[in-house]
Write a structure and sequence with these properties.
The protein has 15 helices and eleven strands. The chain has about 375 residues and is α/β, with parallel strands linked by helices. The chain has three domains: about 140 residues, Rossmann fold (3-Layer(aba) Sandwich); about 130 residues, no CATH class; about 70 residues, Orthogonal Bundle (Rna Polymerase Sigma Factor, Chain: A). A seven-stranded parallel sheet has the order 4-3-2-1-5-6-7, with helices on both faces. Helix 9 packs across helix 13. Bound molecules: magnesium ion. The site of magnesium ion has 4 residues, from helix 6.
Length: about 375
Amino acid sequence: MGSTVKHLAVLGSTGSIGRQALEVVRAFPKRFRILALAAGENTSLLERQISEFKPRFVYYQAAKADAISGEYQFLSLEEMAAHPEVNTVVVATPGRSGLGPTLAAVKAGKVVALANKESLVMAGRIILSEAKKNGAQIMPIDSEHSAIWQCLEGETKPPAQLILTASGGPFHHYSRAQLEAVTAEQALRHPSWRMGKKVTIDSATLMNKGLEVIEAHWLFGMPYDNIRVLIHPQSIIHSIVEFADGSAKAQLGCPDMRLPIQYALTYPERLPNPELPRLNWSLISHLDFEEPDLNSFPCLKLAIEAGKKGGTYPAVLSAADEVAVEFFLSGRIKFTAISSLVKQVLKQHQAVAQPTLEEIMTADAWAREKTLELIGGDNPC
Ligand code: MG
């Protein structure tokens, strides 16, 4: 019972989520078989993963990396996501690169353990309708969405409100003036979560929470006005669902991404894993909540506005942010320039309502060019 071996493709296997997904797989060797691994440029780690898990299919950015020898077939991300022998696809590639494989996986009717939020932000309408048409299941790996998913289990009516919690990041309570001076090194020191660089910077600007509001809108079919964000610095409550009668459910746990990853991979089962930390209840003296400061952290507001306007706005928001974060990480723009760039790019965008995939990609490319033009820099990609 429940012992069928799941054949996994892990896209982004050398990144933070990918590595943690493989830790979960290691804890349950009889449950999972790694059929495909895909990485970017970290070929030395990928090589070790290949010799440990012996996948049949492999992808890496060959043009930039040294070739890896071995007995595998080289496939594109889309090909492995749609391969008939793969049944669960973990999409943990960063940014825009998650969209193609996510779409390929839902079109092929796979179980998609989705950590890449940008794909839903860019093309939520298309992904959800393709998933429905082809019987694909999307299992959220984002901790907030996993929390909401867990709270909704067994409920038959849509909830009244979703409350996404946010740690507030390393600059919680900083003024706008203090934020002007923060460095990439400071921004990468997240107080509670172990994550990749892009999402860590997005957490510091609160853009991450804004992208998550859009993600929740699509995953749970919830109107924007019924999604709220609360700062909860302890990162113990991962999100809250309120129902029509005023009753609320929350999901709690240590801030460790392996928990939502494991839930997505073993769903509907919950399995004991001695590697996962447990909450020490007697040490939790208080759980704090406060409203987010939208003046110091305008990215959250920009994202919710872009989500409400819909069309190509969310794709433009996401693309402008990706470029701006890249420039901030390399020390070429200030922390506060991230939000002002995104704001200016959104303002100049002429949106398409109900866009096709091509129109989304065109808007994405336009937004990247426009952001670069505003920075006055060369395209680093
Ligand atoms: Mg999250």
